[in-house]
Amino acid sequence: MTATDAPDRPSGEPPAEHLTMGIDPYERNWMRVSILILAVFFAVVTIGGFAMGFQVSGVSGEVDPRTLAQSEPWANPGLREVAPGEYEAYVVAQAWTFNPRVLEVPVGSKVTIYVTSSDLQHGFKVTDTNINMQIVPGQVSKLVYTFDTVGEFPYLCTEYCGKGHATMYGTVKVVADSGESASGTNGSATTAVNSSSGATTEASR
Amino acid sequence: MTVLDQPDPQAPLAPARQAAPARELTPEERRFVGWHLIVAISALMVGSLMGPLQAFEYSGVNLYPYIEPIIHSYYQGLTIHGVLNALVWTTFFIVGFTNLTTIRGLQRPLSHPWINKIGFWVMVVGLLTAAVPLLGNAATVLYTFYAPLKASWAFYLGLTLVVVGSWIEGLGFYLTLWAWRKEHRGVRSPFIALGGIINAAMWQIATLGLAASILTMLLPWSLGLIDGVDPELSRTYFWFTGHPLVYFWLLPAYVSWYGMLPHQAGGKLFSDSLARLAFWMFLLVSVPVGFHHQFVDPGVPQTWKWIHAGLTYSVFFPSTLTAFTVIASLEYAARKRGGTGLIGWVRQLPWTDPSVAAQLLAAILFMFGGIGGLTNASYNLNLVIHNTAWVPGHFHLTVASAVTLSFIGITYWMVPYLMGKKLWGPRVALVQAWVWFVGMIIFSNAMHVLGLLGAPRRTPLGEATYVPEAWNGNLLRVSIGGAILLVAVILYGLVMIRTAFGPKVAPEEVPSVPIAESIRHPQLTPVWLDRFKPWLLAAAVLLVIAYGPQLVDQILNMHLNAPGTSFTPW
Prior knowledge:
The complex is a heterodimer of chains A (205) and B (570).
Chain A: H1 25-50, E1 78-83, E2 86-94, E3 97-99, E4 102-106, E5 109-117, E6 122-126, E7 132-135, E8 141-147, E9 151-156, E10 169-175, H2 198-203
Parallel strand pairs in A: 2-5, 4-10
Antiparallel strand pairs in A: 1-2, 2-3, 5-8, 6-7, 6-9, 9-10
Chain B: H1 27-58, H2 74-106, H3 113-135, H4 153-183, H5 191-206, H6 208-222, H7 231-259, H8 261-264, H9 272-285, H10 302-336, H11 354-377, H12 382-385, H13 390-419, H14 426-453, H15 472-500, H16 532-556
């Protein structure tokens, strides 16, 4: 029978010196080790995030989803080269497509990706990269990433957005540099192509 | 040399005497708790039948067209699965179980049983209100109902009523504890009662976010009173509730692991004071951690995400305490039963008792779930798995195993106790727990791997247009795991139905409520581990510091400019 089973047990405080946590020495060490492990983990993600550039998205501006189609740069989404080897990509997510559906960049390009939504929440995760963003109407999501490997990297909608959700994706095509600049000093040799809304790329020049 | 070789600390108090026989629940109280379980278990059965349909879809076997007149799509099935299993089964079970732990723990009736009755019926009305649009495909918004997916107003109203009903029942618990304390000044509150009531208090703080979201935006919007919502603000509100929600599910399982399971295993609770400390820490740090669900969100500064990452690590700490105390309690039990060896004692636990086995297996799966959860909490590491199949893989180890399999284990003594019966087919029940365990390992492991490969969560991957061949083996394993889990669900339904409709048995054959004595007398636990006031105050202060500035900023900059789609998107 426990104390809980003895409501008639005499009440009253035991002598104060007996009122302790009564922590077993093994458990005390376990608590210390637990705290140490958690502190080390926290230090690692902090250094990785704030000193080494493995950073999550933050606040990157707001838009009005109702007038997105009339407001630059969202009226003309696509890829713009802002400096040699550096690009900005503007992507609009809407049920159930990304605009544009292809982003083609030369290998080694540093791309700042901006995404917003004109209707519902969506997700934007580029496979095999650290690019992973929630896309929320009214908000701009932004991450910077350098594509160092040639290949195709699908970007999938990772948030449920209705019946076409499972067909909503696009592709980052990272292509070999056309040759004249192995060092990547002259990325402009490769035209920033954007096959589904290519005209917009020129428009931004 | 193990922890448990030391003799029991000498209690300066006389050991509690064999007092008057324990006050068991009256027939009326048993019926009242039983009604909660009927709703809960029915929800679990219906909701769980949807699960395998999703799992089969992953390998291209889409059965939804065959049940078209009832369920219209994968997503409607998924919504029903999430709402019934994660919200209805859990909430009704937890409130019913907390009635039992309060009444039996305090050995007194509820001080105002009519309050709890009202609370229960408000919950039922809420459930029925939400069920209409759910079944009518008018609320296929998944159980996170991310705005601006717009469900029928009845869905939001129904959810609100379920939550309000649980608040009303919570009020009944506080008043009962208050009455007990007036009758027992200077006595530590019995642990199982205190644990359940701390959980109720945490839930009331946590659900303020959900209430704000529904009452200020979603309900008026779905009624056409406002044109749009602020989706990012609704996310912040949602996750204010959404993460403590998982502790609301988990803490009743902890009540059982700390306060009941040791007794079922033939032992005692290893540390009364640390059990209480763990619960108070959950009250303190369960809520201000929501931004770790928003690591990839726009509109929330990195600093706040990082602060919540740190707080999420700190809420992991009471779970490491739990791991130690629960395992030490079980070791104590096993050694009393003749267990030896560094880990060989595990074999001496009563593995043939289905209630014990289910909870032990649940706890084993929870270790993996907890470790995976640390990955989710890890700020930038989260980028690898956010919104991927890893996440449902994770929470099928936590809510669908640690919580649900533990609750199933609890029903293996609780339903017979409430109904005055014997458990039908204890062997079947034992097999059920193992089948669940095996199915969940296969399912969950495959989901975790798919997530690492980049597969999005809650997406019908069987029909998705981008699935590479490399995923196929894992998609098949998801389906196999789902099939095994379907067997476990059917076995559970069988055991429950046969038990409920079995004959009444003699009182001595009916299981009693297992209550674990603690090794050290609870009166030796410091008073501050038995008082609500300091902990509630600390929780409020921490909440204001950790949520206040960002929440106020988002509210002041609110733009109700997202109307959603002009068509029904599902």
